[in-house]
Request: fold
Amino acid sequence: MTPTPADLLAATSVRVLRGAPSPEELAAFTAVLTLRLSPAPDPAPPRPSTAAWSRPDRTRPYTSPRAWHT
Reply:
């Protein structure tokens, strides 16, 4: 069975139980819900690693399990 627009509206409605929020507060709440329910953006592609030969100052001179590391 396909839901009707009235069913969808009832399922997605928000009801204020206490207090009297101002229009600005309702707008802020709606904005937060919209951001939370929207799909997450695609993650940025990973940056390429720096080649060891191009940045000798960033490579360790000696990498031994028993070597002192600073």
